[in-house]
Design brief:
Blueprint: H1 3-25, H2 27-35, H3 40-55, H4 57-61, H5 63-68, H6 70-93, H7 96-103, H8 106-118, H9 124-141, H10 154-175, H11 181-203, H12 212-238, H13 242-249, H14 251-263, H15 270-294
Helix pairs in contact: 1-12, 1-14, 1-15, 3-11, 3-12, 6-7, 6-10, 6-11, 7-10, 8-10, 8-13, 9-13, 9-15, 11-12, 13-15, 14-15
Length: 295
């Protein structure tokens, strides 16, 4: 087998693992910004707004594709916008562990939506891999003190809706095979900016009083963080069945656990190591299945 061809077949897998890694550590710069007085909503608005501003010319370049797929791009952008803003609000207002547990029901939503909207079906091997990954996530995040993974307050419902919106946006990304990655990316950033602006207006959140340096930090996070993360996830999701990309993206939990151990005083428990190992094993098998099918 040609090594170069094998690498190209695995590029979508590497793309998803890369974006999952970035998402697993992005909480740290966001936390630093919040400690400096820039709240999560404003961080999202400035960061995603910067990426949108720099790449807005894509709308003009791809205007024909934009007109032909406007409805699907609109649905995807609104789903992506709600996903990001709702997740930020849930993390700020609720118990982080419960928020993660409820958000990571998203692979279940992805399978259901993929079946209904894309006609994708899981064979026996894919179903087994999917179940191993989801069980690994549950093992990692389970804590008897926080109860069953069922929403019971406002932040919980935001987390569930964010996970559902994440799955829905990825389904539309997968559905629009003829739309370029960059057009789908700038459409997603537009959704985040619009939802953040509406949320700020409705909530009556005042303009933050922070230094220009902090604002610049948020801009750089958008240009070198969220921009790259969006493009890579769009690329990976566009090139494999939605249930498989959802399985691989659970790798973010592993990175999140490790980054919290390295960057804070948190300790990774045995169940987190076990759950993380299950996720890694599922991701490796999913990548192998993808490579075999692409042969």
């Amino acid at each position: 087998m040609n090594t170069a061809n094998q690498s190209w077949r695995l590029l979508p897998v590497f793309s998803l693992l890369f974006t999952a890694t970035l998402w697993g550590i992005v909480w740290y710069p966001l936390r630093l910004l919040e400690h400096q007085g820039l709240a999560g909503l404003w961080s999202a608005l400035i960061s995603y707004g910067s990426a949108l501003l720099v790449c807005s010319w894509i709308f003009i370049r791809d205007r024909q594709s934009l007109r032909g797929n406007f409805r699907y791009l609109l649905f995807m952008s609104m789903a992506a916008g709600w996903c990001n803003v709702a997740f930020i609000m849930a993390v700020l207002d609720g118990t982080v562990v419960r928020v993660l547990l409820l958000f990571y029901l998203s692979p279940f939503w992805a399978v259901c939506l993929g079946w209904m909207l894309l006609g994708e079906r899981l064979d026996g091997k894919s179903l087994l891999v999917f179940c191993v990954a989801v069980c690994g996530a549950m093992v990692m995040l389970w804590d008897e003190r926080i109860g069953l993974p069922w929403p019971r307050e406002g932040a919980d419902w935001l987390a569930v809706s964010s996970g559902f919106a994440f799955a829905l946006s990825n389904v539309y990304v997968r559905k629009m095979q003829d739309v370029g990655v960059w057009l789908k990316s700038v459409s997603s950033w537009t959704g985040v900016v619009l939802v953040a602006v509406v949320w700020i207006v409705v909530a009556g959140t005042g303009t933050p009083s922070v230094s220009a340096g902090i604002m610049l930090y948020a801009v750089l996070l958008g240009l070198f963080g969220f921009l790259v993360m969006t493009v890579t996830v769009q690329y990976g999701v566009s090139r494999m069945p939605i249930h498989r990309s959802a399985t691989i993206l659970l790798f973010e939990l592993v990175i999140g656990a490790l980054s919290s151990m390295w960057l804070t005083d948190e300790v990774v428990l045995l169940r987190e190591w076990v759950g993380g190992s299950m996720i890694i094993m599922a991701a490796v098998i999913a990548a192998r299945i993808h490579a075999d099918e692409a042969t």
